[in-house]
Amino acid sequence: NFEHKAYKYNFDSKEIIEIGKYMFYPHLSENEDYLIYSKPKYDTSEDRVSDLPDYGQTGLFIRNLKTNEDIEILKDHDLSGEDMIPIQLIYTTIDYK
After folding, report:
1. pTM of structure
2. Burial letters 36-49, b for 16+ CB under 10 A, else e
3. Based on the number of CB atoms within 10 Å of its own CB, is 94 exposed (0-12), middle (13-18) or buried (19 or more)?
4. Structure confidence at residue 64 (pLDDT)
5. Phi-psi region of 17 (alpha: psi -120 to 50; beta: other; left: phi over 0)
């Protein structure tokens, strides 16, 4: 049983902070105040995760990490997995500076 929770790790304090649930392809802003993520309607790597009762609204979102409020950017009415590939490629890149 997976919880599908997303976390932010503070390298300085070694603190792990839970930031939400069902946040796919996350990308943290440079100042760490915002997180862009998607909640796709199509099947992810697990069977029918989007059918879970608490999955909620699908689409592309920005979360204000200071207020924990989401801003919906794009509704996921008819997006397929292929439509999300550019988002996956852009927002799963990790900068190892």
Report:
1. 0.68
2. bbbbbbeebeeeeb
3. exposed
4. 93
5. beta
Q: Which two tokens stand for residue 61?
A: 């979102």
Distance in angstroms (rounded) separating the CA atoms of residues 91 and 62? 12
Confidence check: pLDDT of 15 > 90: yes
Both tokens assigned to 6: 């997303």
Strands in 1-97 per DSSP E: 5-10, 15-21, 24-28, 34-39, 59-64, 69-75
Q: In angstroms, rounded to a whole number, what is the distance separating the alpha carbons of residues 13 and 24?
A: 25
- For residues 57 and 11, give the distance between their C-alpha atoms in angstroms, rounded to a whole number: 32
| Burial zone of 88 (CB within 10 Å; 0-12 exposed, 13-18 middle, 19+ buried) | middle
